[in-house]
Specification:
heterodimer, A: alpha/beta, Pyruvate-ferredoxin Oxidoreductase, domain 3, 6-stranded mixed β-sheet, 6 helices, 6 strands, about 40% helix, globular, B: alpha/beta, Rossmann fold, 3 domains, 7-stranded mixed β-sheet
């Protein structure tokens, strides 16, 4: 089982991101379960959503306490919520920011993990460029696909097409594609460094 | 057809396949997505003939469902929590009149303190109202149970409540196999009412009944529910024949073969319990699971048979009989032929508190070691409780309890679990 926890704020499409990820997993023939942390339906309030992917049916209903991957949609949460709680030692982190882990002051924290699996991506910038609104979720899923290779960019795009009307979908797919390329490039550079 | 959709959307589609003729709805979380989904199907002309009636309250929702059903229509509504309580008088009336309404209850806690999260207090508060109550373990079963519910309700002329865990199931995206219209039509014949308000053939429904006949009417309601105990497994069998999967029935058992310890529960927490049991089984612990799908009528014989070999029973329930302990565990005790001292109530998940494998394993091990109290509150923070009790001892005007506890806890929504 591969478990993903997504942190963000109300209004940033956190719950939608988990749902899209589950649809992408389903399209690849896997069992997938997405669910939100419930209640904080206020714009700006911290929100968590979860997605499990597995080759077998998923029965577990507890929140994801030991994620294999974290997607942080809003870096201002780093100082408010224990977003990294329970991350497995081989885990992935993808943070929506134009800064690096060092610039975020996370150098010490990052030392305990595999550096090539800790990445940042300016997803909001990509969203503004392609979608015209600061909704980073689709771009982050593109980055997630590149970083973890748990799902393909094609499945992410198909899930986005299933959820949104054509025009909105294509704009989000463009943002996801740019984030995918951005992370892929970073990983190539890290591998050759 | 396999689909990856939200539980509420799956239930809305399944209800639509049952061809309801009147849907009355009043929004309340976490049920709202279901009737929103149905409303869209009606307004798009995809579900017809069907009248979607926006009502002014839950009391009106059930009252309209009663009227529609009495006029011969297949009637459906959905609610949760305070909404179910607000319609309670009409809920009893629907059962007393023998009207086969189907209602989804997206299980949620009851206030005060106000809480929108999941537990089973709402449905269990209505356990003696005369409705059949079915509990879904996952979204596949939730949608399957709705199809079975219409069949059961109409065959017996008894209303049926399909309970699914609010948020945990209603808001979860997971894989479901959506049946075809042909399959549902083959399973569910058109509604043929036993009683109908028809101007061409007038009757009255809802007579005042005095002491001379009231007991007999109530007895017949009880007898019908006992009859349902025989019909529910038979229709689950027919469901399997048409739809090709096991769903519904009275109970589900899991790894009971040589189980000395049996965990009993209702609803979606069964999944987490099964994963916990697998883990314990891999270490040689003889433990199994009994899932209650049909809570009313209470399947005494099935529960008794499933627990026949059990040395101890842990009833994990998302409900509390304040001043007594467990509700489900009380029912289980009545069916269990061993010592009542070996039935333990574990109250868990009230108001949406997470139920984790770690906590479950701890409490199951305590039961096996003979260290589990008759009533246990899973993951209760006694330090907070003790501080509140101390304050109440020390000062008369100790203030509102909920607010005091929130102040002690600090930041809301900072915790993941």
């Amino acid at each position: 089982m591969f478990q993903v926890r997504i942190h963000g704020r109300g209004g940033q499409g956190v719950v939608t991101a988990a749902e899209l990820l589950s649809v992408a997993g389903f399209r690849e023939g896997r069992h997938a379960q997405a669910f939100p942390s419930f209640g904080s339906e206020r714009t700006g309030a911290p929100v968590v959503a979860f997605c499990r992917l597995d080759t077998r049916p998923i029965r577990l209903r507890e929140p994801i306490l030991a994620p294999d991957a974290l997607i942080i949609q809003d870096p201002t949460l780093l100082h408010q919520v224990d977003v990294f709680g329970g991350l497995t030692p081989d885990g992935y982190i993808l943070i929506n920011t134009s800064r690096t882990f060092e610039q975020l002051g996370l150098e010490e924290f990052a030392a305990g993990f595999r550096p090539e699996r800790l990445r940042t991506v300016p997803a909001t910038e990509f969203a503004l460029k392609h979608v015209g609104r600061p909704l980073p979720n689709a771009a982050l899923l593109g980055g997630f696909a590149a970083l973890t290779q748990q799902i393909s960019l094609e499945s992410v795009s198909a899930a986005i097409r299933e959820k949104f009307p054509t025009k909105v979908a294509e704009a989000n797919i463009a943002a996801a594609g740019e984030a995918f390329t951005y992370i892929s490039q970073q990983l190539r550079e890290a591998a050759s460094a | 057809m396999l689909k990856q959709i939200e539980g509420s959307a799956a239930v809305a589609e399944a209800v639509a396949l049952c061809r309801p003729q009147v849907i009355c709805a009043y929004p309340i979380s976490p049920q709202t997505h279901i009737v929103e989904g149905l409303g869209k199907l009606v307004s798009a002309g995809q579900l017809k003939p069907c009248e979607f009636i926006n009502v002014e309250s839950e009391f009106a929702a059930m009252s309209v469902a009663i009227g529609a059903s009495a006029a011969g229509a297949r009637a459906y509504t959905a609610t949760a929590s305070q909404g179910l309580l607000f319609m309670a008088e009409a809920v009893f009336n629907a059962a007393g009149l023998g009207l086969p309404i189907v209602m989804t209850v997206a299980n949620r806690a009851i206030g005060a303190p106000i809480n929108i999260w999941n537990d089973h207090t709402d449905a269990l508060s209505q356990r003696d109202c005369g409705w059949i109550q079915l509990f879904a373990e996952d979204n596949q079963e939730a949608l399957d149970l709705h199809i079975q519910a219409f069949r059961l309700a109409e065959e017996l002329s008894v209303p049926v409540m399909v309970c699914m865990d609010g948020f945990i199931l209603t808001h979860a995206y997971e894989r479901v196999d959506m049946p075809t219209q042909e399959q549902v039509d083959a399973y569910l014949p058109p509604y043929e009412p036993r009683q109908v308000l028809d101007p061409a053939d007038p009757v009255s429904i809802g007579a005042m009944v005095g002491p001379e006949a009231f007991m007999e009417v109530r007895y017949l309601a009880h007898a019908k529910q006992r009859q349902a105990l025989e019909l529910i497994p038979a229709w689950a069998g027919e469901f399997k024949r048409i739809f090709g999967r096991e769903s519904g029935g009275l109970t589900h058992t899991y790894r009971l073969e040589d189980a000395e310890t049996v965990v009993v529960a209702l609803g979606s927490v069964l999944g987490t319990i099964k994963d916990t049991v697998d883990e314990m089984r891999s270490h040689g612990v003889k433990i199994g699971v009994l899932g209650i799908t049909c809570f009313r009528p209470w399947p005494t014989a099935a529960v008794r048979a499933a627990l026949a070999q059990a040395k101890r029973v842990v009833v994990l329930e998302k409900s509390l009989a304040v001043g007594l302990g467990g509700i489900v565990s009380n029912n289980v005790s009545a069916a269990y032929q061993g010592s009542p001292d070996d039935v333990h109530a574990v109250i868990a998940g009230l108001g949406g508190r997470s139920i984790t494998r770690g906590s479950l394993q701890k409490v199951f091990n305590q039961a096996i070691e003979g260290k589990l109290d008759p009533v246990t509150f899973l993951d209760l923070d006694y330090s907070i409780v003790d501080r509140v009790l101390k304050r109440e001892r020390e000062q008369r005007r100790s203030g509102p309890i909920a607010e005091a506890i929130l102040r002690e806890l600090g930041v809301v929504a900072a915790k993941i679990g």
